[in-house]
Amino acid sequence: MAVSNNPFLNGDFAKFDFASLMDPSKLTEQWEKFDFTKMADQFQVPGLDAQALVASQKRNFEALALANKIALEGAQAVMQRQAEIVRQGVEEASKAFSDMNAAGTPQDQIAKQADLVKGAYESALANVRELTEMANKANVEATELLSSRVSESFGEFTGEIKATAKKK
Asked: How many Å apart are CA 139 and CA 83, to the nearest integer?
């Protein structure tokens, strides 16, 4: 294999599985296998601390992976709760039909039906509110994590620029 002056075409970088970027578990595996610090050392840009850049980007990836995990766990919790709500709804509907059929006169049945519809409506609103709050909580947590990391990253970048300026 011919050696190129382009560090992206030499060494381990060419072996990186870019398809893994779509699968967080594979991305973590690839990140652990691939030595970005070795590749960063190939760059000789005056005033650029490649190791600090790699360390910063690693923290960015870690924050992104954690935010994705939080969002995924939140979505899973919402789906589990939705399944519980459906199960409860089926049970309540079955009981409601039994109760409605047990009501005596047609007037009693209509009154019972109105009560059941009112209860179902109130239950549906409470469930939607609960699911919305669950989803919102996970999204806020993930967003705050990313926002915090972005702020840290800008601070790191600014610090590196100031350190480079002092060296000159």
From this structure: 20
Distance, CA of 155 to CA of 101 (rounded, Å): 69
Residue 143 is assigned to a structural domain of this protein:
yes
Does residue 135 fall inside a structural domain? yes
Within-domain flag for 42: no
Task: Please tell me what DSSP assigns to residue 6.
Answer: -
DSSP code per residue over 122-160? HHHHHHHHHHHHHHHHHHHHHHHHHHHHHHHHHHHHHHH
Answer yes or no: is pLDDT of 168 > 60.
yes
Mean pLDDT confidence for 62-83: 93
Residue 1, pLDDT above cutoff 60: no
Tokens of 110: 């209509």
**Number of domains into which the chain is organized:** 1
Could you tell me if residue 146 is inside a domain? yes
- CA torsion angle for 10, 15, 21, 22 (degrees, to 10)? 140
Specify the residue for token string 């992206």. 8
Q: Kindly report the CA angle at 140 between 63 and 62, in degrees rounded to 5? A: 5
143: containing domain: 50-167
pLDDT digits (tens, 9 = 90+) for 18-65: 666 566 666 666 666 666 666 666 666 666 777 788 888 889 988 998
